[in-house]
Amino acid sequence: MIVYFSGTGNSRYAAALLADRLGDDLLDAGVWIKEKKRADLTSDKPWVFVGPTYAWQLPRVFSDFIRGGLFAGNQEAYFVMTCGEDIGNPEKELSALCRVKGFTFRGVLEVVMPENYITLFSAPDKEEAARIVASARPGLEEGAKKIAAGEDFPERSIGFVDKLKSTLVNEMFYPMFVKSKAFCVTKDCNGCGLCEKLCPLNNIELEGKEPLWGDRCTQCMACICGCPKEAIEYGRRSKGKPRYQCPEYQG
Ligand SMILES: Cc1cc2nc3c(=O)[nH]c(=O)nc-3n(C[C@H](O)[C@H](O)[C@H](O)COP(=O)(O)O)c2cc1C
Ligand code: SF4
Ligand code: SF4
């Protein structure tokens, strides 16, 4: 089973492609997380966990979902991490997660997709994004072949900096950057409530017609990039930047 978490669609795209190639089921962990449901799943085929990279690791909300869930049947686990640049060295933490779950760790596949982190960096425009998505496909196809053949994902070369990014920098990242205080709306907000529906952590509530952010944000970018009126800003940091959404996988 392909289980994914996605803020702006990159990981959903990768997961849908893998499900298509492997003839496997696709499950959106974000829906379960939003409904505060613990995973209780069974699969005859290997587990393939697909998610974005947050500070060179899987998002904590997603690894917590895996850690706290029941995944019966096949006990092989593959990980696919989409990223804007690189995934660092998540292998150690993911192997440890597999040990806790009783999974056999079959490796991590790095898939470079468009950057979506617009509260800190910038997302590419539509044309550039389409080019990046197209260039990610061969790696995903190769990954699908490895899973189908029951082979490990190839080992990645890892340097000292990768180790540092996925350990110390990741630890520092959460308290420093994973906040939602700076989210606000402009006068273009029409109170449609889509942001409230999109937030996988139920961190947005409409008071009357005004969206208000709580303190459970994981910085997934679903709200700011999904608002149809582009009415959400993150202080001044997001001003004038393109909003990013990966198109649905169409085969
Ligand atoms: C909070 C946050 C942290 C991120 N950290 C990294 C990172 O460490 N390395 C990287 O290459 N990309 C990083 N990115 C970019 C995303 O991992 C990348 O765009 C991913 O494909 C988004 O997937 P999604 O559309 O499924 O949410 C980060 C994005 C966000 C929102
Ligand atoms: S999705 Fe956008 S327009 Fe709709 S309520 Fe949220 S901020 Fe306002
Ligand atoms: S508030 Fe926005 S960025 Fe934060 S978790 Fe919810 S949808 Fe994602």
Largest sheet, described in full?
5 strands, parallel
Count all strands and give the number: 11
Low-confidence stretches: none
Rg, rounded, reads 18 Å
Estimate percent helicity.
25-40%
CATH topology (level 3) name of the largest domain: Rossmann fold
SSE succession:
EHEHEEHEEHEHHEHEEHE
Distance between the termini: 18 Å
Overall number of domains: 2
Structural overview:
By secondary structure, the protein is α/β, with parallel strands linked by helices. It has two domains: 2-173, Rossmann fold, CATH 3.40.50; 179-234, Alpha-Beta Plaits (2-Layer Sandwich). Helix content is 36%, strand content 20%. The strands form four sheets. It has a five-stranded parallel sheet with strand order 2-1-4-6-7, with helices on both faces. The chain has a two-stranded parallel ribbon with strand order 3-5. Strands 8-11 form a two-stranded antiparallel ribbon. The structure holds flavin mononucleotide (FMN) and iron/sulfur cluster (2 copies).
Layout of SSEs?
Elements: E1 2-4, H1 10-22, E2 26-28, H2 29-34, E3 40-43, E4 47-52, H3 60-68, E5 70-73, E6 76-83, H4 91-101, E7 104-112, H5 126-149, H6 160-177, E8 183-185, H7 194-198, E9 204-207, E10 210-213, H8 222-226, E11 232-234
Parallel strand pairs: 1-2, 1-4, 3-5, 4-6, 6-7
Antiparallel strand pairs: 8-11, 9-10
Helix pairs in contact: 1-5
One iron/sulfur cluster binds next to helix 8.
